[in-house]
């Protein structure tokens, strides 16, 4: 059934260095996967490892794909994609970014073969959606300049990275909030940067500003600290790095540790695991968010399909061609004035 498997690696360069609490990124190693069946249908996947979160490296992903993703792996009809999901989870256990790469390539092939869209396969909720724009850790004046620039472009939700200096962050947040209009939203992402005392200080200081949410204010997995922050009832607390799997999501959400979850394909192991976590969160009336890493347009397109397939509350998909000058991918989707739309076709050049 599968005629060829093509695996390659390319270093993509950000248009501008991006800084968060634990790193400053200028370029990213991305693994590209292309599978072709005997009829000439193509399935594309890509993997952008976040070693700090999942422990994967580009070398580990490349090696695992070369070793385990052979033509013999595809020994079932393509229609049995859920059985392939189970097989991927076992074969690439402990490698969620690798799992996501393989599953998205398989589903992309399935959709191309049967001329359907992944967004319709998984729900078909809407045709367009608004994405937010993320502002990295920058000096005060540059932060405000970037916020003004993106509001002018048309973005209505700004995500502000913080977590390095609580006093500076409070100053920035207050200033940014003054710039935003009433129909704009502001969310924060500390990337685990604060200790508990700093996080409490921040949340109490901005409690009157109507911030929509804050992601991962303290080190991931500290359930007691997260519960303490949630009980302040100032700003909704959303988990990101703390939740890598459905079992993590079940523990954090059913025990009411947080108000919601940022689900990323690179963390959870692919679209089907994404669906499981999303529906769990929705059933508990929790905030749902889809996020991304520094990713190629291939994996970003899969995330866009999910964002359009489901009633996800917050869309954070501002990578792909928005980030890179040299992404070797054509098509997928467009972003205009903060609005995401799908394009016809997706090709690896």
TrEMBL record:
Catalytic residues at 161 (proton acceptor), 264 (proton acceptor)
Cofactor annotation remark:
Binds 1 Mg(2+) ion per subunit.
**Cofactors (names):** Mg(2+)
- Name its species: Candidatus Roizmanbacteria bacterium RIFCSPHIGHO2_02_FULL_37_24
Which one GO biological process term can you cite for this protein? amino acid catabolic process
- What keywords would UniProt list here? Isomerase, Magnesium, Metal-binding
Q: Where, by residue number, does Mg(2+) bind?
A: 189, 215, 240
Record-linked SUPFAM superfamilies: Enolase C-terminal domain-like, Enolase N-terminal domain-like
Question: In its keyword annotation, does this UniProt entry include ATP-binding?
Answer: no
> Keyword DNA-binding: yes or no?
no
Q: Which SMART domains match?
A: MR_MLE
PANTHER family from the xrefs?
O-SUCCINYLBENZOATE SYNTHASE, O-SUCCINYLBENZOATE SYNTHASE-RELATED
Pfam families found in the cross-reference section: MR_MLE_C
Q: Could you identify this protein by its name?
A: Dipeptide epimerase
What is the taxonomic lineage of the source species?
A: Bacteria, Candidatus Roizmaniibacteriota
The EC number of this protein is: 5.1.1.-
Stretches assigned to the Mandelate racemase/muconate lactonizing enzyme C-terminal domain = 140-236
Give the family, as the similarity comment puts it: Belongs to the mandelate racemase/muconate lactonizing enzyme family.
Instruction: Kindly list any coiled-coil regions of this protein.
Output: none
Superkingdom of origin: Bacteria
Q: What does the record give under GO molecular function?
A: metal ion binding; racemase and epimerase activity, acting on amino acids and derivatives
